[in-house]
């Protein structure tokens, strides 16, 4: 199995798209600003892209935002021309769709993992960062990023020779710790050589998704 190759032009495009979103999160607004973290905004943006069109309450539930912060997020995204709204909900503009497709070229959808013990937390989700294996060091960076967002833990794997491996640890955890979860990750996410796979656990699935995305962003 060949290692996934992510060219420099593709990486630069993804980083430009991500930086534009993060700049939106940093931009001050008039009046009281409901607080939210950058991964919440990115998750809300990606959720809109995945949904096609989505109402504000559903978006709040899926992105872990309360009503005030989700209004602020949508206002910021509208001001930058990434989102529009109508009576049915909010949706991405052509400009927003371009940013979404750029990020999606490197980030897989989430996979909910039933009965996973790959990290700690009753609810665990996995995400693939395509070509992200090169950016993985010890995995502590990803774990620390999820703890800051109230998730419970995260484990980062790198795909080598068609197998999951743990940085600084097991070269074949599938063999050492047999579980149906490995097959679930492969079937739902299709990781390839050179990819990084982050599994984040939390007390609820939304927090696990926010944490997994936060960890994934450290590998772009």
Map the helices and strands.
Layout: H1 8-26, H2 38-51, H3 56-63, H4 67-79, E1 83-86, E2 89-92, H5 94-104, E3 111-113, E4 123-129, H6 140-147, E5 153-160, E6 163-165, H7 173-176, H8 180-189, E7 196-202, H9 205-217
Antiparallel strand pairs: 1-2, 3-4, 4-7, 5-6, 5-7
Helix pairs in contact: 1-5, 2-3, 2-9, 3-4, 6-9
Order of helices and strands: HHHHEEHEEHEEHHEH
The count of strands amounts to 7
Helix % is 40-55%
Sheet bearing the most strands, described? 5 strands, antiparallel
**CATH superfamily name of the largest domain?**
GAD-like domain
Annotation field: number of helices? 9
The mean pLDDT is 93
Tell me, what is the CATH class of the largest domain?
Alpha Beta
Shape: globular
Structural class: alpha+beta
Write the CATH architecture name of the largest domain: 2-Layer Sandwich
| Low-pLDDT runs | none
Structural key phrases:
220 residues; alpha+beta; 2 domains; 5-stranded antiparallel beta sheet; 7 strands
Write up what this structure looks like:
There is one protein chain. This protein is α+β, with helices and mostly antiparallel strands and 220 residues long. The protein has nine helices and seven strands. The protein has helices spanning 8-26, 38-51, 56-63, 67-79, 94-104, 140-147, 173-176, 180-189, 205-217; strands at residues 83-86, 89-92, 111-113, 123-129, 153-160, 163-165, 196-202. The strands form two sheets. The chain has a five-stranded antiparallel β-sheet, with helices on both faces. Strand 1 and strand 2 form a beta hairpin. The protein is globular.
